Every structure is written in structure tokens, then in C-alpha cells.
């Protein structure tokens, strides 16, 4: 039986690390991890602790001397993850399902906030390898532990990438929100602008109608004036006619006033009377 | 992008076998559930909200997973989970 424990501090918040942990696979850095499937997820209503179980299928990348013993192409791992959001503790327990009769692989990963820096996360990775196969047990255990160490190093790099993915996505969401806000602002501005336009057009139209009204009024006034003018002209004409008639009547007599009879001669009534 | 191409090749290699023996079977349903799960996890669960979400995505995904486990002779894992569930419910 062999044990090993690796410690590491991630300079990231526990919340970010715990989300990124779910998103580590698939990754091109571990082509041997073919799939990770959730088999159950339960929340304890009392404690608020989430328990998930997962099946991990790996490509059997093993040394040639191990192949005859293990035989299979794919190997399976079973993982139980518990997350306590109150204490900010995430624990992942993984063990092998394949060839478990000849080899036991157990790994426990724990993520907790760093007590010396709340913005960092402490990571503890424990491995236990047990083999009882006569003759190759030691070799097998050593091999698996070596594999555990290489994969642990890879795992840290993968975690950093997953963190970047999570952060990048958060930024993208922020950008999308920004964009959406900008679009809304832009649309509002455009609407305001079009309202401005409508008001201006309305103003212009009002001015137009006003001008039209003014013109109509002017025309009417001019008409009235023109009518007045023609009336004046008529009055003048009448005056003229009247004075010329008077001149005609007085010039014959050369200043001699009419006698009554004579006067009546010129008036219609007089004419009638004299007849 | 390159990640998505890999599984397709895998599918072809395993065509003679049961389609569920493709390790990447149920991937689309998994992705659909995961997209919802990640949002729920960071926006709800980590903030103390214990109400379950993504139920529809989860159920569709699990129907596929059942077939996948059957193909690999791993159905016993679900039984194991049921026991775990009951333990939790009895608490």
C-alpha cells in the first residue's frame, strides 16, 4: 500500500475554483479522459450540502506489462463530490471500478479557502494505491503512484485553464450585458431623436399652416381693400358725375336761379305736375 | 471546436459495437444539462439557495445515461446511488 499527498494553493477564490472544478474535463491535455457523466445530484435540505456522483471513463493508457493483467481498453472511475457552500468545502472522492480486484486506486481532493488569504484556495490531493497481486504488486503500486503525480501536475494546469474559461465567460457575460445596455441606450437615443424629429416636423407644419393662414388673411384683407378701393372709385365717379351734372345745369342759366316752376320741370315730380 | 471533433471519430470506431459503448454517448444532453447546472451552481447554489433547477435537462440526460450504464454493465452504480439517496432522505 502506498500513500501520497500533494498540497497546492490556487490564487483564486474558492467559489471560482469550485465552479471550475466541474468544468475541468474534457480537455485536450488529458485525451485519456474520454467522458465524465453525472449519475446523481442530491441536496440535503437540512444542511444544504450538494452530493453528486460521477462516472469517469478513461482510455486505458497503461504499460505493456500491465495490459495482460488488466486487459480492458477503457477503465472506469467512480467519483463522489460533496459541496458545502456554508463552510466552503468541496471534497471529491474518486476510486477505480475497473480491475479493482487486482488494484485499488483512491483519491481524495479537498478544496477550502486558504486560512491566511480568503481570496485564495487551498488544495489537498491524497492518493492511496493498494495491490495484492502476487509478484507485481509493488511495481504496480509504484507505477500508479507515479501516474498519479504526473496527472496531479497536469490537473493543476487544467484547473488554471478551467478558471480562465470561467473568468473569460464571466467577462463575456459582462460584455454582453454592456452591449445590451448600450443597445438599449442607443435605441432610446434614437427614439428621442425621432421624437425630436416629429416635434420639429410638427413645428414646421404648424409654421406652414400659420404662414398659409397669414397668406389667406392677407389675401382677404387685400380683397377687402380692393373692394374698398373700387367703392372709393365709384364714389369719386359718382361725385364727378354729380358735379358735372350740376355744372351742366347751372351753366345754361349763367347764375340765374331757378324759379320754382322751372325747378320742378327738372324733377320728375315737377315734370308730372307741370303736365 | 477540436474537442467536438474527437468524439465523432470515436463514434465511428465503435460503430460495430453498441452505440452506447461510445464513451462520449449522451454528450449533447450532458452539455445541455451542464450549461444550466453551471449557472445554477454559481448563481444559486453557492449563494445558499437549495432549490433544484434544470430538472427537465437532468431527466432527459439521465434517460440516456441509464442506457449508457446498461451497455457498460455498470447499472449497479445507479442502485448504489439510490441507497445513498435513501440514506439522505432518512436523515
Structure description:
The complex is a heterodimer of chains A (275) and B (91). With 275 residues, chain A is an alpha+beta fold. Helices cover 52% and strands 28% of the residues of chain A. Chain A contains 5 helices and 7 strands; from the N terminus they run βαββαββββααα. Chain A has helices at residues 14-22, 67-70, 137-253, 260-266, 268-274, and strands at residues 2-10, 33-43, 50-59, 74-84, 89-96, 103-114, 117-131. Chain A has a 7-stranded antiparallel sheet. In chain A, β2 and β3 form a beta hairpin. In chain A, α1 (14-22) packs across α3 and α4 (260-266) packs across α5 (268-274). The termini of chain A are far apart. With 91 residues, chain B is mainly alpha-helical. In chain B, 67% of the residues lie in helices and 0% in strands. Chain B is built from 4 helices and no strands. Chain B has helices at 2-13, 27-43, 55-71, 76-90. In chain B, α2 crosses α3. Chain B is flat and about 45 Å long. Chain A binds chain B through residues 15, 18-19, 22-23, 26-28, 31, 34-35, 37-46, 48, 50-51, 53, 55, 57, 74, 76, 78, 83, 85-86, 97, and chain B through 2-3, 6, 10, 23-27, 30, 33-34, 37-38, 41-42, 45-48, 50, 52, 58, 61, 65, 68-69, 72, 74, 77-78, 80-81, 84-85, 88, 91. Chain A: Pfam families: PRELI. Chain A: Residues 1-171 form the PRELI/MSF1 domain. Chain A: Keywords: Coiled coil.
Q: So, CATH architecture of the domain at 2-165 in chain A?
A: 2-Layer Sandwich
Main β-sheet, spatial strand arrangement of chain A: 1-7-6-5-4-3-2
SS-derived structural category of chain A: alpha+beta
Give the end-to-end Cα distance of chain A, rounded to a whole number of Å: 168 Å
Radius of gyration of chain B: 16 Å
